């Protein structure tokens, strides 16, 4: 079910991205997750898209940034733990890291110039079902577990529902805020304030609605009903939820689906 904009929380990737556009707040969240200092961030890009060939699969990174030593990708994963998307997370992390590497190594550069990479998945479920507060992965030798490849990459999956006893206090507070919306420390209070400011941002509200109108969820609703009317129904529902007038919705439906006026009016009578 699609959320209204004012219902979005930090666990929704759109809101997560908007909040993390604040460089200082983004840096503090990364420090909390990594449990180590992070340098001054040079840039924070949200919903950054990569596509290297016309036939290649495109990806969009929730939060993509770097300091002087490392590149970071932070992803908010608000999924059912048994969904196909959640089961794909390990291979997605591989694809995301390779895309980040491609973005940072130009022709003629030495491989030594590749910055270290960190791919971080913040999960509202236990991604591997073992109860750990986080799962950190580095490449190591199968024959000698003390020998690391030292390729500069690490992939970390955070389990926000963990009840492990060894979770650092600030990370525990972040997990609690993501789960419940209750801010218990300085960092989570700053995040909560940023979320409230974002909810009042009308430009971002419009951007969110535009994304929904072109989102695959609308297409899925159409496929589930087995006919194109499902797509129109989903679009009308979203427009109405966001407070668009009857006339504004008619215009959007007509433009999106290239329908004649009589069909638009028919659908509006059915679904408005």
Helix-strand sequence? HHEEEHHEEEHHHHHHH
Number of domains: 2
Q: Which runs of at least 5 residues are low in confidence (pLDDT < 50)?
A: none
Helix and strand content put the structural class at alpha/beta
Can you characterise this structure?
With 272 residues, the protein is an alpha/beta fold. The chain has 2 domains: 196 residues; 58 residues, no CATH class. 46% of the residues lie in helices and 16% in strands. The chain has 11 helices and 6 strands. The chain has a 6-stranded mixed sheet with strand order 1-2-3-4-6-5, sandwiched between helices. α8 crosses α9 and α9 runs antiparallel to α10. The model has no long low-confidence stretch (mean pLDDT 87).
Summary, kept brief:
The protein is α/β, with parallel strands linked by helices and 272 residues long. It has eleven helices and six strands.
Please give a handful of descriptors for the protein shown.
272 residues; 46% helix; alpha/beta; 6-stranded mixed β-sheet; globular; 2 domains
Describe the secondary-structure layout:
Blueprint: H1 13-20, H2 23-34, E1 43-50, E2 59-66, E3 70-77, H3 84-87, H4 89-104, E4 116-123, E5 134-137, E6 153-159, H5 169-180, H6 186-199, H7 202-213, H8 216-225, H9 229-241, H10 246-257, H11 261-271
Helix pairs in contact: 1-6, 8-9, 9-10, 10-11
């Amino acid at each position: 079910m699609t959320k209204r904009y004012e219902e979005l929380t930090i666990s929704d990737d759109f809101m997560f991205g908007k909040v993390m556009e604040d460089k200082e707040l983004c840096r503090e969240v990364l420090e909390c997750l990594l449990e180590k200092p992070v340098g001054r961030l040079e840039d924070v890009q949200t919903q950054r898209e990569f596509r290297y060939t016309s036939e290649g699969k495109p990806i969009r990174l929730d939060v993509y940034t770097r300091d002087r030593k490392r590149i970071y990708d932070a992803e908010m994963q608000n999924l059912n733990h048994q969904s196909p998307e959640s089961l794909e997370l390990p291979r997605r992390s591989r694809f995301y890291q390779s895309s980040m590497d491609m973005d940072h190594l130009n022709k003629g550069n030495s491989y030594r110039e590749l910055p270290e990479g960190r791919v971080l998945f913040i999960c509202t479920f236990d991604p591997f079902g073992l109860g750990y507060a986080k799962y950190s992965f580095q490449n190591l030798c199968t024959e000698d577990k003390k020998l690391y490849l030292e390729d500069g990459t690490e992939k970390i999956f955070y389990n926000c529902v963990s009840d492990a006893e060894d979770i650092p206090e600030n990370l525990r507070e972040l997990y609690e805020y993501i789960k419940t919306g209750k801010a218990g420390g300085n960092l989570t209070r700053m995040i909560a304030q940023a979320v409230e400011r974002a909810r009042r941002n009308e430009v971002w509200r419009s951007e969110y609605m535009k994304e929904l109108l072109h989102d695959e969820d609308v297409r899925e609703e159409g496929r589930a009903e087995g006919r194109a009317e499902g797509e129109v129904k989903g679009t009308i529902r979203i427009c109405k939820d966001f407070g668009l007038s009857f006339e504004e919705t008619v215009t959007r439906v007509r433009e999106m689906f290239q329908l004649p006026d009589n069909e638009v009016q028919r659908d509006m009578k059915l679904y408005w």
